[in-house]
Amino acid sequence: MTIELDHSIVSCRDKAASAKMLGELLGVPWSPTGIGPFAPVYVSDGFTLDFISTDEDFPIQHFCFRVSEQEFDAILARIQAAGIPYRSDVRGQTDMKINTDYGGRMVYWTEPDKHLWEMLTVSYARQPA
Question: Which residues belong to any copy of the VOC domain (predicted)?
């Protein structure tokens, strides 16, 4: 059996607002309500990010989305149109630049709850063959 990640829970202050922002930026379906207390973002046919509202402290999480060149252009255009600052380095300053160090393109942005999102066209995290 192949193991696949099915979903992950993302804590936030406002689940509907967080799901809406990410879903619209990625250009994928989302819902303000899902099963139980979640607002899902349907990232792909096999993976969902389930946002859950909380008043408790929560750790900052990092999620990376591998996309095609065309999807990268479309998502970056939506990030720019929304006025969201982005950067070329995971811990760097906002430079509004695209990183091309690993044979593709990548950018990082931080959402209002401080979670760190990354988008890239070529993965640098694959296990060597």
Answer: 4-122
